Amino acid sequence: MMDETIQPSPLRALHEELKAQMDGFDGYELPAQYPSGAEVEHLHTRKQASLFDISFLGQLRVRSKEGNLAIVAEALEQLLPTNVIGMEKGRMLYGLLTTDQGGIRDDLVISRQEDDFLLILNGRNRESNADYIENALGEDCKVSREFDRAMVSLQGPKAADVLGAVLGVSAITAMKYRDCHDMPWENGTITVARFGYTGMDGFDICLPANLAEAFARRLLEHPELEPAGMLARNTLRLEAGLCLYGTDIDKTTSPVEAALANNIAQCRRPGGERAGGYPGAETIAGQLEHGIYRQRVGLKPSDETSLPNGAEIFSDAEGQDRIGRVTSSCLSPTLRVMIGMGYVTPAHVEVGSQIFAKMDDGTMQPITVAALPFVPLAER
């Protein structure tokens, strides 16, 4: 019996029909993998296209009570170091909610729609982060939680072909990377973004829960599309060098330490026209100017030995000088080698640096600092 604290996905019946192995992810019961297995799903995504259920993500709409989106943009800039004011309608950005100490409260996607802003929050803390956003934005903004809606992700080089067959080829091919548009489907409206969490071409689609199963079934009629689970999604994002909240980034890591400083808009940096004004701005500005004590890097073992998550990293084979730890790792289905990410001190961030990870049995495994991403990103 499913844990009553875990919510079923709107696509649960379809997952069961497809004999998915189900597991809990951020409060939702979602497919870990299907009978073909996570590795096959991963490789199929790389070559053709796969459909992922990502309904655990929280959809949040923010409107102005006076109908003035500029007011909402100004308010949102008080929460994250992003150029929200400069966003064009129908476009989206990756953003970071920061803490007063300069850490990362959440990473999210924000889209400027016709009448509101759509925020996609991580499922892990979506209720508490929605509370935080609502309280911080003030009385001029109205926040609507649409956590009962569904969300699917169509990823891979054939994703545009698959979605175009359902929504119309011209509508899909006209979309640029990070475009986000409302589109009609059946008797409702869906929100389609050319975006994703795999480093590949693809689309994230928000839609009413009552349309989700019919829409997914329609997509899966395409011969090049297969369903894929959360295990494949994780290995794909790690090959792309993308962070997982709660694993690679959290409230104790800053955007600069996490190698995400490129998501701090130039106009919000020191000397910019709207510099600062967001939580932790002084700390982050200091890091941009003076440097940091640790940085996220890619990691590869020197041989095929495993690379345990959480393993401590040392500069020496004797384990005397601890310089960081591993945060994510997996056997890359594409490269057929172990890959990982972690944090090390600035003296060891250069690609090719040899350092050492302490294995579960206490032995010291040579590892090498590697360039991110491990697999080249799709052309944008």
UniProtKB/TrEMBL annotation:
This is aminomethyltransferase. Residues 13-262 form the GCVT N-terminal domain. Keywords: Aminotransferase, Transferase. Pfam families: GCV_T, GCV_T_C. It catalyses: N(6)-[(R)-S(8)-aminomethyldihydrolipoyl]-L-lysyl-[protein] + (6S)-5,6,7,8-tetrahydrofolate = N(6)-[(R)-dihydrolipoyl]-L-lysyl-[protein] + (6R)-5,10-methylene-5,6,7,8-tetrahydrofolate + NH4(+). The lineage of its organism: Bacteria, Pseudomonadati, Pseudomonadota, Alphaproteobacteria, Acetobacterales. Its EC number is 2.1.2.10. Residues 294-375 form the Aminomethyltransferase C-terminal domain. InterPro entries: GcvT, GcvT/YgfZ/DmdA, GcvT/YgfZ_C, GcvT_C, GCVT_N, TrmE/GcvT-like. It comes from the Bacteria. Belongs to the GcvT family. GO terms for molecular function: aminomethyltransferase activity.
